[in-house]
Amino acid sequence: MTIGGATRFAVVLGHPVAHSRSPAMMNAAFAAAGLDAVFLALDVAPAELPACVAGLRAMGALGASVTVPHKHAVAALCDELAPAAAAIGAVNCLQLAGGRVIGHNTDSPGFTDALAAAGGEVRGARCVLLGGGGAARAVAHGLEASGAARLTIVARSACTWRASVPWSVANLAAAFASADLVVDCTSVALDPGAEQGMVAALPLAALPAAAWVGSLVYHRTPLLLARAAAAGHRTFDGAEMLVRQGAHAFRLWTGADAPVDVMRRALRG
User: Fold this and answer.
1) Are residues 218 and 142 both part of a single domain?
2) Which of 20, 96, 162, 207 lies most in the core, judged by the most C-beta atoms within 10 Å?
3) Do 54 and 118 reside in the same domain of the chain?
4) Are residues 96 and 114 in the same domain?
5) pTM, 2 dp
6) Is 232 exposed, middle or buried (0-12, 13-18, 19+ CB in 10 A)?
7) d(C-alpha 56, C-alpha 214), whole Å
8) Which residues pair with 104 in a beta bridge?
9) Structural domain boundaries, residue 252
């Protein structure tokens, strides 16, 4: 990579953000597309987010990916929200166009693209989401926009954005019994100790044999997916979702189709 006076830049904003694989993935995409651009990770404290977004606007950045903990706060700093971002209430991608900051949510189509790439079918599917936070909201939007027949959310705390079912073994078993797809949208898999207890209590035996099981975690194989696969279920993790949401961002920033295969290899790298 040669950086010169005409090099454009895009960033991922988070706190912390040093663990992000987005720079490797997006820099590989820029290089494969022959673009004179670089992608950086910026650790931005919440109090500094307004100044950072103003700086990106002033410097004419290509755009920005947005991750924890900024996806909700950054929405208020946008001049405009795309329909999906407005419906979900969260922004994970900033497009800078004509001096305006437009907020998008590419997590939603990124999830459904990832499921389709794995061979899963959304249209007509009966779906169960574990957890009712922001990640679940993006996944739910994508599933409903793609024609899911039914969506059941099982959460420990009541959702603020739609009806949910209280978390209990009985409720989980009832939801699982007719599910075509179960997606873990909780953060439990990030804590191995908590993950062990949660997965042990899930009534996986109630799932139909043809049901898919997914997770949004991408840095390792979650225990839920390992046990579901061992029981014969088809599974998918968050790696392809990260690639696909990045592909949507790439298209927004550059106007070109993303080199998805290159991005996937770089992420696995």
Assistant:
1) yes
2) 207
3) no
4) no
5) 0.92
6) exposed
7) 35
8) 93
9) 8-105+241-268
Residue showing tokens 């078993």: 173
CA distance 185 to 214: 9
How do the pLDDT tens digits run along the chain, 269 residues long?
Answer: 789 999 999 999 999 999 899 999 999 999 999 999 999 999 999 999 999 999 999 999 999 999 999 999 999 999 999 999 999 999 999 999 989 999 999 999 999 999 999 999 999 999 999 999 889 999 999 999 999 999 999 999 989 899 999 999 999 999 999 999 999 999 887 787 888 999 999 999 999 999 999 999 988 899 999 999 999 999 999 999 999 999 999 999 999 999 999 999 999 88
What is the full DSSP assignment across 29-93? HHHHTT--EEEEEEE--GGGHHHHHHHHHHHT-SEEEE-TT-TTGGGGG-SEE-HHHHHHT---E
Cα radius of gyration rounded to whole Å, the chain: 19
In the chain, the number of structural domains is 2
Nearest alpha carbon to residue 40 among 75, 84, 1, 91: 1
Which tokens go with 200? 């042990």
**Is residue 63 flagged as an active site residue?**
no
